[in-house]
């Protein structure tokens, strides 16, 4: 059931209650509670699994989520013009990272279609008002999925109740490349004022680091060619490795993540640093933060993937060492459904 809510001057529809118990995608049912409230002040029990995935448990019923995304999500708490600008900025970063050898592309869960507008892809979006706005900007929407050379999921994977199952469903359509970008736990210090609550979002049942996002994609039958803690990654279907990879290219080795202890340590350090990172000691703590982050997350710095459109990337840092406006906590990522 959906209820109208007013939080911090925002008007939105939220789901009335969590009723569905959630196990981790790796199969475990326990974990460590690392958060109890999201950025909108909505009670959300965030649980860190030993594998490193963070889930909201319990969570909403799937039937409620369908109505929420089709009818209410986005337009209740985000100005469309502002959101369009955010998506267009993301599109520029994505265009700089995607492979150049594709003939057709679809963005799944495209929202207003700003990414599709920049990249030149078709767009698929369930929300009628988002689609109407995108069409007014010249975005080419389609009514159902079809085969494509490049499948783009821009801030979408974290919304799926079961990301592995959804990727398995979409796998048949991605004939060449899968491009995924999601908010990453490693972005909390610089993009969310070192606050897990600023990062948490009740519409995001899953939170990832690169290793866990990579594992989810691999469990769905893909192999990852490149990625970073941004989080961005490029993948191909496992059966297409020999067909698409060049002789000198190899996908990342498949691994089973065990990031839970490291991420628990990291989130504890983030809480301890929160008051410091927001104060006068920001510059003095930057080096220590970078060293600590590099020790916890092994893909903080990645070269530009081979065969892509240009230099740069999603969530690139600005000259002053901060992040672009779209990633700041007062203008959170507001991912697409």
The CATH level-2 architecture is identified as 3-Layer(aba) Sandwich
Alpha-beta classification: alpha/beta
Mean pLDDT, all residues:
81
Question: For this structure, what is the CATH homologous superfamily?
Answer: Vaccinia Virus protein VP39
- SSE succession: EEEEEHHEHEHEHEHHEHEEHHH
Alpha plus pi helix count = 11
Helical content stands at 25-40%
Strand order of the largest sheet: 7-6-8-9-12-11
Low-confidence stretches: 277-284, 309-337
Q: How big a fraction of the residues is strand?
A: 15-25%
Oligomer: single chain
- What is the rounded Rg? 19 Å
The CATH topology label is: Rossmann fold
According to DSSP, the number of beta strands is: 12
Q: Largest beta sheet, briefly?
A: 6 strands, mixed
CATH class: Alpha Beta
Structure, described:
The structure is a single chain. This protein is an alpha/beta fold. The protein has a single domain, classed as Rossmann fold (3-Layer(aba) Sandwich), CATH 3.40.50.150. Helices cover 32% and strands 19% of the residues. It is built from eleven helices and twelve strands. The chain has helices spanning 62-72, 80-97, 114-119, 128-136, 163-170, 188-191, 196-199, 210-219, 241-244, 260-277, 282-296, and strands at 2-7, 10-15, 32-37, 43-48, 54-56, 105-108, 122-124, 148-154, 174-181, 206-207, 222-228, 232-237. The strands form three sheets. It has a six-stranded mixed sheet. Strands 3-4-5-10 form a four-stranded antiparallel sheet, with helices on one face. A two-stranded antiparallel ribbon has the order 1-2. Helix 10 packs antiparallel against helix 11 (282-296). The longest helix has 18 residues, at 80-97. The radius of gyration is 19 Å and the shape is globular. The two termini are 18 Å apart.
